[in-house]
């Protein structure tokens, strides 16, 4: 028994070192911009760069829009499939898994062929249209995670009973959806939202090919032209991802302790 416990701790230590040691090396290198001393000069340089603020703000805005529109798409779909159309559930699950199978570069080239300036719907012919196309692209990438998170949260509640109780009180479908269903699956929505945030902040292919000022292409640009700032940006990106993971864990605990709302 003791040998198994020691072996388990050794395996955990090896696995942790696989992730922690490269990150510590990246952090240490990002602090060596000033010759002969550790400093935060690389981080000051990054935060002082106006392009960093513009691209970071743009990606945060796109993440917010992606989360809102993705939520408005996924929650009603998952609710309707669970309540009225359980026979199409395998088809919906297959569709939501396609972004994991189809490479992002294939998806964005398809969008460019369908929505270029000479097509019936020329979204790439204007800045706002290209921004909308990028947002829909992010929605496509985040669809598997958002749908799984919402569907898992919806399994934990009795959708049919909540719907019948609301209907018996005279509630209409918008009221049922936004006042009964949404509050009970909010933990799943938030879990999907944090994953979506991490995806949008680090995505490169779609933003680069659509020529939008997003954070992912900025990371690549800095990495190709500077030495210490890329390491600082990598640490910042890791911090954003870990913050999202921590918030997911917090929301999951809240979901387990919170009672269903009728």
From TrEMBL:
Recorded superkingdom: Bacteria
Regions that span the bilayer: 7-25, 56-79, 91-112, 132-150, 189-210, 230-251
Gene3D superfamilies the record matches: MetI-like (1.10.3720.10)
Transmembrane among keywords: yes
Keywords annotated in UniProt: Cell inner membrane, Cell membrane, Membrane, Transmembrane, Transmembrane helix, Transport
GO cellular component: plasma membrane
Domain ABC transmembrane type-1 stretches: 56-251
Membrane topology: Multi-pass membrane protein
GO biological process: transmembrane transport
One Pfam match: BPD_transp_1
Main location (coarse class): membrane
Subcellular location: Cell inner membrane; Cell membrane
Family indicated by similarity: Belongs to the binding-protein-dependent transport system permease family.
PANTHER family hit by this protein: INNER MEMBRANE ABC TRANSPORTER PERMEASE PROTEIN YDCV
Record protein name field: Spermidine/putrescine ABC transporter permease
Record organism: Sinorhizobium saheli
Lineage per the UniProt record: Bacteria, Pseudomonadati, Pseudomonadota, Alphaproteobacteria, Hyphomicrobiales
């Amino acid at each position: 028994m003791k040998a198994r416990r020691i072996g388990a701790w050794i395996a955990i230590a090896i696995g942790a070192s696989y992730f922690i040691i490269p990150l510590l090396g990246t952090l240490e290198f990002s602090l060596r911009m000033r010759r002969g001393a550790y400093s935060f000069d690389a981080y000051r340089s990054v935060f002082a760069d106006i392009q960093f603020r513009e691209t970071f703000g743009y990606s945060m805005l796109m993440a917010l829009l992606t989360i809102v529109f993705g939520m408005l798409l996924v929650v009603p779909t998952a609710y309707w499939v669970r309540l009225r159309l359980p026979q199409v559930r395998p088809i919906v699950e297959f569709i939501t898994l396609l972004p994991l199978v189809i490479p992002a570069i294939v998806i964005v080239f398809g969008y460019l062929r369908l929505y270029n300036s000479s097509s019936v719907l020329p979204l790439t012919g204007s800045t706002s249209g290209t921004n909308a196309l990028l947002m829909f692209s992010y929605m496509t990438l985040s669809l598997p995670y958002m749908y799984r998170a919402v569907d898992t949260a919806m399994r934990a509640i009795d959708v049919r009973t909540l719907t019948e109780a609301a209907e018996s009180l005279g509630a209409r479908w918008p009221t049922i959806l936004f006042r009964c269903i949404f509050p009970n699956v909010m933990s799943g929505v938030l879990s999907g939202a944090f994953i979506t945030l991490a995806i949008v902040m680090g995505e490169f292919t779609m933003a680069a090919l659509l020529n939008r000022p997003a954070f992912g292409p900025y990371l690549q640009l800095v990495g190709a032209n500077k030495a210490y700032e890329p390491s600082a940006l990598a640490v910042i990106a890791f911090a954003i991802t870990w913050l999202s993971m921590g918030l997911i864990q917090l929301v999951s605990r809240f979901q387990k302790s919170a009672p269903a709302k009728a």
